[in-house]
Amino acid sequence: MTDDGVLHPVVRPIRDRTTLLAYAQLGLLGWFVYAFGASLTLLRDDEGLSRTAASLLSISLAAGGTLGSFLAASIVRRWGRGAMLRAGALAIATGTLLYISDGPLWLVATGPFIGSLGASFCAVGVSAYLEARQGAAADASLAEANLVASSASLIGILAVGVAATTILGWRLGLLLLVVVAIALEVLRGRTVEAFNVGTDMESRADAPRLPTLVWWAVLTLILLTSVEITLLQWGPDLLRERGGLEAGSASATIAAIVVGMIIGRLVGSRLVERVSSELVFGGSIIFAAAAFVYTWLVTGAVPLIIGLVLIGVGIGMHFPLGIGRAMRASAGQPDRAAGWTSAGIGIMSGVAPFALAALADSWGVHKAFAVMLLFFAASFALLLWKRVPEDVRA
Fold this sequence. Notes:
- This protein is mainly α and 394 residues long.
- It has helices at residues 17-47, 51-79, 81-99, 105-134, 138-164, 171-188, 200-203, 212-243, 247-253, 255-271, 277-297, 301-315, 318-328, 334-363, 365-369, 372-385.
- 79% of the residues lie in helices and 0% in strands.
């Protein structure tokens, strides 16, 4: 398949049993990460923790995800991708149980680390499996998998929120995740060999270096996910300052971005079955940037919420298409490319929000957010300069 034109022959994902299990596994990641974010304030209130103490849990989450991303390719080389995926699901379950254990802070803090370690195994392994298994339909399949992850993220947020209003408490929303993770492994069964497809190159001791094009693709995606991460963390402050919402309402309303991402991935997964993924990727950057400008200019709760949904629609395809570009440029080493991509995102998840917070302290949160337009512009310029043709897999 070539990338010379806008349209190409329709390519639909193979939705067999292992593919659906991979989709579900990416859902574990979404549930864990977003339920953690939704529950952190509740845990802080329960335990009487300071913001500084609670921030240690976020650092633990970022550290686990980054380490897991760096280790993923080595684990695949030694034990196989299927074993890593199983370890990822079990690590999410174990980390979740430690996090909700109501034990001492040092024990609770190991939960986000172990859980995020497992989540990174899931992100890398699922992405690489779909790239190797689906071939030309990989971009559509990655979009579908991330649609499942976004939907699970919303379920995780709602599960924690609803459980918090009952006598059972917010921990029930995360305990349900443990049940789902264990059920997934029961369904997977004893054999994990089917998930090792496409690991021949990476299993070689003399595997070549990743092509330079991979690093440009990774940088393009890191710039875009920095916007997403920063919006999710500091968006509530923008809603409070420009929309007049109270703190609790602003934090809950940020879920509008996730709703938009679900819509974007639902539509985008169908588009890339027929349209060049490079074109869809570029269009999603322009759409997200335009939605961001609208959101930055308007005031009032309703216009801002509409803007956040529209931003979500645009950024929804950034991760699946961005990591897909890095993997298809990897010369048969998708786990390595996905691992470096995930690691870069993990590092920027700490750097980008911190940088914006520093600017916001000097300029105010509204003016500071304007810097995000530079991230959109830089990523779009890189996309045009360092294209990754769809036939590069051949």
